[in-house]
Design brief:
This protein is mostly helical. The chain contains 15 helices and no strands.
Length: 286
């Protein structure tokens, strides 16, 4: 296994790209989500071409592996988008961010040889508290936080489980090149476009929209998946799961910067909690 610093670098690069998702999403908020996801995934799948030196054979994987990839990329987004239609978006997004905690807790269940200590769980819970501070603090100017049960919360929880389990199970299937993530993205993109055709109104995109969609495909809905796959293969998923709590923090900080809003207390507090959780978790004996 390569140095954990190598895996950490790949994971942080993926997390940094995911951190741009909210800012790009605001600019593309008028684009139906399944259309946006489908186009972005198809564009992102093209990253596999240079990775595979334009050898399409690198995209081919056993049907079981392809099914796992589609389960992760398409299943996660499908459940999340449906959840956002049936629950308040801020709270549903918070429930969805249980997936890093899920990675830490599920690692010893799904991966042989992995063990979990109470410090892992404690650090993961602390990281989730930091994510909650970042997400809920961003919504402080809205009309309060809804605490009543909504059916969308269960779907958001399912989407979190899908991404956590997909991230771990890629180490249980026969080894495949990271370029094969292109096939996961391509099939998931086509399925997303099919959902758009059935569930959403037709929408015309401007040139600026297309440029932003390309950025989305090369970044948070494309390039990040390749980096994440390489990181999971090279590193400790418990450690990487803790770092993933940086995603909502970076997303909030970038959104604040793009809007020109003043830095709020929640960003600083979330940073302390999440970074503290990552440091604590990284020092747990293996």
């Amino acid at each position: 296994m390569k140095s954990h610093w190598y895996a950490d670098g790949l994971a942080l690069a993926a997390i940094a790209l995911w951190g741009t998702l909210a800012a790009l999403g605001v600019s593309l908020s008028h684009v139906p989500p399944f259309l946006l996801t489908g186009l972005s995934l198809l564009i992102g799948s093209l990253i596999a071409l240079p990775l595979s030196r334009f050898q399409l054979a690198a995209w081919r994987v056993p049907l079981r592996t392809l099914g796992l990839g589609v389960y992760g990329l398409f299943g996660f987004h499908f459940l999340l988008f449906v959840a956002l239609r049936h629950a308040p978006p801020v709270e549903a997004n918070l429930v969805n961010y249980l997936w890093p905690l899920g990675m830490v807790v599920l690692a010893p269940v799904l991966l042989p040889g992995m063990h979990i200590r109470w410090q892992h769980v404690g650090a993961a819970v602390l990281g989730f508290v930091g994510a909650a501070v970042a997400i809920l603090g961003r919504s402080s100017g809205q009309a309060g936080i809804h605490l009543t049960f909504e059916p969308g919360y269960l779907l958001a929880l399912c989407s979190a489980f899908v991404w956590a389990s997909y991230s771990l199970l890629t180490r249980r299937v026969p080894t495949f090149p990271t370029a094969a993530v292109g096939s996961f993205a391509a099939v998931s993109g086509l399925l997303s476009l099919a959902c758009h055709a059935v569930l959403e109104p037709a929408t015309a995109l401007s040139l600026q929209d297309w440029l932003l969609v390309v950025a989305m495909g090369l970044g948070p809905l494309g390039g990040a998946f390749f980096l994440w796959d390489a990181a999971i293969k090279a590193g400790d998923p418990r450690r990487i799961g803790l770092m993933a709590f940086l995603t909502p923090l970076l997303s909030t900080a970038l959104l604040v910067t793009v809007r020109g809003d003043p830095l709020q207390w929640n960003v600083l507090l979330a940073a302390v909690l999440i970074i503290g959780a990552a440091v604590w978790g990284s020092r747990v004996p293996q």
